[in-house]
Amino acid sequence: MPKKILLPIEKVVNENTENEKIVVEDETFVIKKAKFIQLTKLMSTVTDIVKEVKTNEDLNGLFSAFSQEVDREDEEAVRKAEMDIISKGVEAFPTLAIKLPEQALEILSTLSRIDKEVLEEQELENILEVYDAVLEENNIQEIIERAKKSLALTTSKFNFKGLAEKAAAGQA
After folding, report:
1. At CA 92, angle to CA 43 and CA 134, rounded to 5?
2. How many angstroms separate the CA atoms of 86 and 10, rounded?
3. If you count DSSP H runs as helices and E runs as strands, how many of each does the chain have, helices first?
4. Do 108 and 119 touch, CB atoms closer than 8 A?
5. Which residue from 64, 63, 62, 65 is spatially nearest to 81, judged by alpha carbons?
6. Which of 20, 31, 75, 95 lies deepest, with the highest CB count within 10 Å?
7. How many CB atoms lie within 10 A of CB 133?
8. Exposed, middle or buried: residue 130 (CB in 10 Å: 0-12, 13-18, 19+)?
9. Is the pLDDT of residue 131 over 60?
């Protein structure tokens, strides 16, 4: 069953007059299962994130610092690895703080059907409430497994390689 989220929305009334004021009204948003178009938009944003991570030297440095093997018994090696992660994190901070949060909000907006501008004005607690509702309504792991099953079935029913060979032989 779709989940309802109540979010405060600030609105300006009597704009550009002496009676101008900001009024906060609660608005109800319904979080439903994602439709195909939303998943398509999601994949586009995820692709952008992957490209950013692959092409950004600072992010590459940070991720490689996280993944390097360290002898946990060697305190000096552990301390050096921790300092390396902190250093790389500082270098990657501009990208992490500016670019990736924008894309995270884009993903949340796409899956929740709540305008990104509305989400940008929310407190962190409200953002997390929307995030939780999206996860509850859309079992991402289940969607991935279902897509894999369909792809495997399609592959078994259609011998694409055989069709391509027949088409090529027919043209020869």
Report:
1. 35
2. 38
3. 8, 2
4. yes
5. 65
6. 31
7. 20
8. buried
9. yes
Each domain of the chain, given as residue ranges in start order, spans: 3-58+101-151
Within 56-99, residue ranges assigned H as helices are 57-67, 75-94
Placement of tokens 């069709």 in the chain: 163
Residue range 83-126, pLDDT digits in tens: 887 787 778 877 777 778 888 889 899 989 999 999 999 998 99
Q: Which two tokens stand for residue 36?
A: 């195909």
| Distance, CA of 2 to CA of 22 (rounded, Å) | 31
Type of residue found at 89: G
Tell me the two tokens of residue 169: 């032989």
Residue 31, both tokens = 């979080």
Torsion from C-alpha of 38, 142, 136, 107, nearest 10 degrees: -30
